Fold this protein.
Amino acid sequence: MHAGEAEVDEAVVGRLIGAQFPAWAGLPVRRVGSAGTSNVMYRLGPDMVVRLPRLAGSAKDVAREQHWLPRLAAALPVAVPVPIAQGVPGEGYPCSWSVFRWLDGTTPDPGEPLAEPVLFARDVAEFLIALRGVDPAGAPAAYRSEPLAERDGSTREVIAELRGLVNAGAATAVWEAALRAPAWRGDAVWVHGDLQPGNVLVDRGRLSAVIDFECMGVGDPAVDLIAAWYLMDAEAREAFRAALGGAADDAMWARGRGWALTIALNELRYYRETNPVMADIARRVLGRLTEEAGRAAGGR
């Protein structure tokens, strides 16, 4: 998926565990199927999972997750990964890595409706309200903490590059509306930064866990509104925004659309040949955003 990606398989993971955590040596190791782009995961025994960065650039996030996730977990209404061990490079693997408790649940299928879409949307809103309420003192800046305006040139370039694959006019309209929206003037708050299908778990249609906090930190809470287009249909989006109340005013909602657009555009450009699942998700998001833009233009 990436140039320079670390080579890892069950044998490497087994050797890492045996060398650094001998108490777990001999537990079965098996690959966890995932379309994840930054890490690979291996189930370790019945109740643990080993998470290994694909690239050295992602390894810097291991220490941040080890430090902050236990603190966030205590304040959130659904489960999040809690690290139980941190590994170091070895056995030919070049990065730091983590062992977490296994969390039950399944990632939602982007092509299938959830059993309880409205209740799920309210669950996500409850999670975000709680996350925003965590004390941000000492927290790092989120991976996506810059103002949207700093992405203007690159986003327009991707729209032009993908012309024919996306509705360029509608995408540009969404983007320009996001840029016109007033910027966030409040204090920076905790954000997850990447609420999309591979990063949430569901059980019987309800949110059961939020995973992959690699992008976490403090920033404009609008970035977490990408969940509305990455995880929800139109009915669920309405319920999501209603549940957020004043935490999703018109300006924040417009910036949330902008974040969803720029992220999905870049994912489609980067992964369209290497990760069909991620590319398909990006197409769905862009379709939802541009359909909304079309309906809004038709209503004027």
